[in-house]
Design goal:
This protein has about 90 residues and is mainly beta. It is built from one helix and five strands, in the order βββαββ. The strands form two sheets. Strands 1-2-5 form a three-stranded antiparallel sheet, with no helix packed on it. A two-stranded antiparallel sheet has the order 3-4.
Length: about 90
């Protein structure tokens, strides 16, 4: 599970299976568009990304292919995540 709180709000994300998460002050678009970390602009909110799984790093474009044990190759999957709001 992961709990996020601030500005009078709080919620917890829970799942029966492991999941990946990232909390950031930058949007996915901002992280994709900027080449250097000093160029990033705080979006004024917390961006929470909840993911069923992550693929390992590597693409064989300028280095090795992703190692098999780190590759995400599921063609179909079912993932359930519950968001539980709480009062603060």
């Amino acid at each position: 599970f992961v709990t996020l709180s601030g500005n009078g709000c709080k919620f917890t994300a829970v799942s029966a299976s492991p999941f990946s998460f990232n909390a950031s002050r930058f949007t996915q678009e901002e992280l994709t568009d900027k080449a250097h970390n000093y160029e990033l602009e705080d979006c004024g909110s917390v961006v929470l990304c909840l993911d069923y799984a992550q693929n390992g790093i590597g693409s064989n474009s300028c280095g090795p292919q992703v190692m098999e044990q780190y590759a995400f190759s599921d063609e179909a999957f079912r993932f359930e995540l519950k968001l539980i709001p709480e009062t603060v």
